[in-house]
Write a structure and sequence with these properties.
The protein is mainly alpha-helical.
Length: 227
């Protein structure tokens, strides 16, 4: 699951009234994790949303929503993955954060929760029963919900080169132990066993998360994500 949260600026009746509408829009359009922030720069008639620039469906949904609500439009700003986290933190520090924002669950969201930057979602704001308990844990802290998952699954896969494996008589591994054995044999033949596009570092994290989850179990994985 890529991204999770919906949260909001503390003590804002306007935000609370808008939550149900915005969350409904988000869930219907596979919005990535969104949340409310500290003091907002949005106008009194609309909301601001920040997200990553690959959210094509989100943009289409916001455009459709704005067409139906010309007097209370949503302002959507999209950012590249590499600049997004820093811009979001700067905006929070300057009290200029958006009303709704894409975020990742676990520790990434919990940092804002601990700092009192995001608001709690109540049962009247969103029907958490629509989601599995294991997914909601990523946005639940001390029994309180701060976000909802509204993005599709992002599978993490490994591709293999049939010719390369055939040339060194290695069968495609089906288990982690099999993968380690294949890596050892490939290295012994002078072949680079794995290559990962990880210039921005976060792709590597996905593989590490899988290893922690598969070898340590869900409890270890959850505790590690929450810091």
């Amino acid at each position: 699951m890529r991204g999770i949260p919906v949260t909001g600026r503390l003590g804002s009746p306007r935000i609370r009234r808008a939550v149900a509408v915005t969350v409904a829009l988000a869930a219907a359009t596979s919005l990535a994790a969104c949340g409310f922030s500290g003091p907002s720069t949005s106008s009194s008639k609309g909301l601001t949303i920040w997200a990553l620039n690959d959210q094509t469906i989100l943009k289409q949904s916001v455009d459709a929503y704005n067409k139906d609500h010309p007097d209370a439009k949503i302002t959507l700003r999209l950012f590249s993955n590499n600049e997004y986290t820093q811009k979001l933190r700067v905006a929070f520090d300057a009290n200029q954060a958006p009303d709704l924002f894409f975020n990742w669950g676990g520790g990434a969201l919990n940092d804002y929760v601990k700092a009192g930057k995001v608001d709690v979602l109540n049962a009247t704001d969103v029907n958490a029963d629509r989601y599995t308990d294991s997914v909601m844990q990523s946005a639940t802290f001390e029994g309180k919900v701060y976000g909802v998952p509204v993005n599709g699954l992002a599978p993490v896969v490994l591709y293999y080169n049939k010719k390369v494996l055939s040339d060194v008589d290695v069968q495609p591994p089906k288990t982690y132990d099999g993968l380690l054995a294949a890596v050892k044999k490939l290295k012994g033949k002078g072949v680079t066993p794995l290559s990962l596009a990880a210039d921005s570092k976060w792709p590597t994290l996905m593989y590490l998360e899988y290893l922690v989850d598969r070898t340590g179990g869900s409890r270890v994985f959850r505790e590690d994500r929450l810091g």
